[in-house]
Amino acid sequence: MTHTYQVTGMTCGSCEAKVKSALLLVENVTKVEVSKAENTATITMDKHVSINDFQKALGGAEGKYQISAISHNEAIEQSKSWLETYNPLLLVFGYISLVSILVQINNHHFDMMQLMRHFMAGFFLTFSFFKLLNIKGFAESYVMYDVVAKVIPAWAYVYVFVELGLGIAFLVDFNPFVTNVVALVVMVVSIIGVLQAFFNKQKIQCACLGVVFNLPMSMVTIIEDALMIVMSGFMIFSMK
C-alpha cells in the first residue's frame, strides 16, 4: 500500500535526504519519495505502519520533523491492518465457536458446560495442528517468551502434544476434573510468559498458531489465553 503524508520542518536538500533515510529504516517500508518543495513523503509499505512509528523514526514528538496523514484516515487504516493481521486467528475462533454452538441444536436444552467443553476441544486440537505443521519452528519461537521453555527447551516440543492430549480429553469428556485442572495449570503458566513479553514491549512472533501465520505478540494473545483460563476455572468450580 502507498500513502502520502505531510512532513514539516524540512528546510533544505539535506533535510529531505535525512527524512527519506529515516523513513526507509522503518519496518515494512519498501519505498519512500520525499519532496521538500511540497512538504510531503509518499511511502510504500508491505502493511500499514502507524503515524506514531513514523514520528519516532523522525525523532519523536519533539523532533524537528513532524509527519501527519493527508490522504487517508489513520484510524480506518489501522483497523484494516489489525483485521488483516489477525484474520487467521479470528477465523479459527469463529469456526470453533460456530461448531460448538451448532452441536447444541441436537440438545433439548442449551448446555453451557458442554458448549465450553467442545470449544476447548476445538481450541486445543486446532492450535496443536498448526503447531505440528512446523513443530521445530514453533519451538524456536516459543522459547523466546515462555517461562518454562526458556529453562527447559524440550518443553516447547512437549507442549504441542500436551495441547493435542487436552483436545482429545475434552472431546471424549475424559475425567473432566483432571482435564480442566491440567488445562488451567498449562494456560496459567503459558500466560505468564505472554504477559512478560507484552509488558516488556518485545516485538516477537506469537506462536499460538505455530509459525504458519506471522502473528505478533499482543493483547489478543493475552485474551486468548485468559479465555481458556476462565473457561477451565469455571468448569472446575461448577463441578464442586
Question: How would you summarize this macromolecular structure in one to three sentences?
Answer:
This protein has 240 residues and is an alpha+beta fold. The protein has helices at 13-24, 51-57, 74-103, 112-132, 135-142, 147-151, 154-172, 176-199, 219-239, and strands at 2-8, 29-35, 40-45, 66-69, 205-206, 215-216. It folds into two domains: 2-72, 2-Layer Sandwich (Alpha-Beta Plaits), CATH 3.30.70; 80-239, no CATH class.
Total of domains: 2
Question: How many strand units?
Answer: 6
Numbering strands along the chain, what is their spatial order in the largest sheet? 2-3-1-4
- Proportion of residues in β-strands: 5-15%
Enumerate the spans where pLDDT stays under 50 for 5 or more consecutive residues. none
Give the SSE string.
EHEEHEHHHHHHEEH
SS class: alpha+beta
The main β sheet shows up as: 4 strands, antiparallel
- Shape call: elongated
Q: How much is the average pLDDT?
A: 90
Rg, Cα atoms, Å: 23 Å
Bin the helical content.
55-70%
* Helix count from the secondary structure assignment: 9
Span between termini = 55 Å
Q: How do the strands and helices of this protein lay out in sequence?
A:
Layout: E1 2-8, H1 13-24, E2 29-35, E3 40-45, H2 51-57, E4 66-69, H3 74-103, H4 112-132, H5 135-142, H6 147-151, H7 154-172, H8 176-199, E5 205-206, E6 215-216, H9 219-239
Antiparallel strand pairs: 1-3, 1-4, 2-3, 5-6
